Amino acid sequence: MKHFKSHSAVIAALILTLAFAFACRTKKAKEEEAMPKLSLLPDIQQRLAKYSPTEIGFDASLLAGEDRQVLKKLVSAAQRIDEIFWKQSCPQGPALKKELEKSSGLEDKDALHFLRINFGPFDRQDENKPFIGTTPKPAGAGFYPPDLTKEEFAAWIAGHPDVKEEFESPFTVIKREGGKLVAIPYNVEYRDDLSPLARDLEEAAGLTSNPTLKKYLTGRAADLLNNDYYQSDCDWIDLKDNLVEIVIGPYEVYEDGLNGLKASYESYVYINDVAEMKKIRGYLDYLDEMQKNLPVKHQYKDQKVAGLASPLNVVFEVFTAGDAKAGIQTSAFVLPNDERVREKKGTKKVFLKNVMEAKFNKSLIPISERILTAEDRRLVSFAAYFNETVLHEICHALGPGSLSLPDGTRTTVNKALRDLYSPIEEAKADIVGLYNIPLLMKKGWIPADMENEAYTTYLAGIFRALRFGAAEAHGLGTLLQYNFLREKGAFLYDPQTMKFRVNFKSVKEAVKELARAFLMLEGNGDYAEVKQFIGRYGKMDEDTQRVISRLQDIPVDIEPIFTIKL
Ligand code: ZN
């Protein structure tokens, strides 16, 4: 087979563990010869090179004695999440890992390294293609029996309406038991892992003198053991005046490719960056003014912004585990996901600043060196990148929220634009954020000499996003911005050197025009008009394709190496 080569004895043995169908321990050597060729993808090193190992540390002087003790307990709890996520992601993974750990072969070492990054022998950056063996990843990962289909799952519920709730719960696994399907609650299935973890959280609660953190940690420990997360989700939103913090438990459902129902365990341990958070609260004070400042008529900026009081945390990541650590690293998250908590308490946005900076250094800087002229790449800065990321999140709240259709009915932008909403909304948040930077400079929140940095950093960021393709919302949204601004002459390309630069004479006006275009597309809510806009600006020209193809060897992401010692 073209893409595979036969491999070492260890890998060979591993494939047997992986493909249950062949894992018969009593088989004799003669029969083993007849087994399928066992293989490792030959380009494992290139795949590994997409993740640049990077130390993720923090300034220990930020923490006094008590917080340092609490932090250690939280990391100890978080570490135990990995074991649970292995079971959810790839139940055979730990056995594979153990086998590979016995080998000293270089290729086995690479395979082990990549297995750890992906929490299984499937490349998360390549549609879960197996890199050890050929057995595909079951769509339902470890949440369901591997042979269960979507249809059988639905049919079982249709035939047994009383189990619907427990079967569709985010917090149960589905198993076969004597010809029947059953739902096992997470706190039963993973009890052996959860008990010591809850103990760590209780001990951390005993060490802290912050009453909100004490309440949250005690509650979270109990909730993890009773499989109901509502109250401690609320308590997480209510945390106040604490430095150290943890997110721990089952949250996102992306790992469940069968039904998108089952939540994966993950953990983030982090330290709040108090000074930076103060600054961002300053941005929020100007939200109303940013809304008024938008270059459109009143009808396109009717969204109420006063209510946006939900916390924005800027933090130093100290440790992650489980789903949060697998594959691509998160640079910001919004939790909790429980709609009841969202309604009562809102959400909390957390920006992982040191992770963003690591990604910036390992990926955005090399990209800018390759695609920008020498003068422009000197202007690319982390401060600008960070501001743009934060403003993107804030500016989702700006612009039109609802609109009147031609027949007079009121609807939301989201409902009017349906499947085209996400790319337009993501692009709007980007460009409205960039448009508002001069305003924040006037207010003294962003240094006044940073305007050109903002535009060049934004241009470099466009190429970072386009690398991931235009298939998903962020990628397509980025392509629309890029093509529009190029058409207006804001970005100039020299085919001789294959480098881009920002045209500082025209970029500001072009950004204003583009912000106006997206705000009106949203406010008009005309599906056909948006379709036409995407038709015009949603294609990638050959020059750009060529430039992007030259970025392939630049790491796509970091692999975090946590420096905290317990
Ligand atoms: Zn967004």
Keywords for this structure?
single chain, 566 residues, alpha+beta, Fructose-1,6-Bisphosphatase, Chain A, domain 1, 2 domains, two-stranded antiparallel ribbon, 17 strands, 51% helix, binds zinc ion
Describe this structure in words.
The chain has 566 residues and is of the alpha+beta class. It folds into two domains: 1-40 and 92-136, no CATH class; 191-562, Fructose-1,6-Bisphosphatase, Chain A, domain 1. Helices cover 51% and strands 14% of the residues. It is built from 26 helices and 17 strands. The protein has a five-stranded mixed beta sheet with strand order 8-9-10-12-11. A hairpin with a 5-residue loop joins strand 13 (402-404) and strand 14 (410-412). Helix 1 runs antiparallel to helix 6, helix 4 (65-79) packs antiparallel against helix 11 and helix 13 (230-237) runs parallel beside helix 16. The longest helix is centred in the C-terminal third of the chain and has 22 residues, at 421-442. Residues 392, 396, 426, 429 line the site of zinc ion.
The small-molecule ligands in this entry are: zinc ion
Q: How many helices? A: 26
By DSSP, the count of extended strands is 17
Poorly predicted segments: 1-9, 16-38
How would you sum up the global shape? Answer: globular
For the record, the count of structural domains works out to 2
Mean pLDDT: 90
Rg (C-alpha, Å): 25 Å
Structural class: alpha+beta
**What's the CATH topology label of the largest domain?**
Fructose-1,6-Bisphosphatase, Chain A, domain 1
Strand order of the largest sheet: 8-9-10-12-11
What is the distance, rounded to the nearest whole angstrom, between the alpha carbons of the first and last residues?
Answer: 47 Å
Output the CATH class name of the largest domain: Alpha Beta
- Report the CATH architecture of the largest domain: 2-Layer Sandwich
The amount of helix comes to: 40-55%
